[in-house]
Write the structure tokens for this entry.
Amino acid sequence: MSISSKIGNKGMFATSLFYAIVGIIFLVLLPMNDFAPHVGLLGIFSLVTAYGLLRKRAWSFWLVIILFVSGTTFALFMIYGALANAYLIALGMIAYLILTWVFTAYTAMKRNALEV
């Protein structure tokens, strides 16, 4: 049995993989940001969301919405603060912002695929 046959919906798998990677990155960056609580919360919420999407839980949609709002706010503040001297951070935050919007829109379109 191949891996692609085990993965039912490749788009939802990609979405959960995105949130898992983002969660791990935020938790790795936590000590580098002097243990900023918002970075840790975004990391934990991202990992829980990845689990919920992978298991097709209905509550994960609401976590996606929470991460959309908080992630967008976080990314916009980081972009504003980093444009003056840290272009690589600003570029990474722009990529995070765009991917957050894309995967939120995809999850909203596929909301019926999640179990109740």
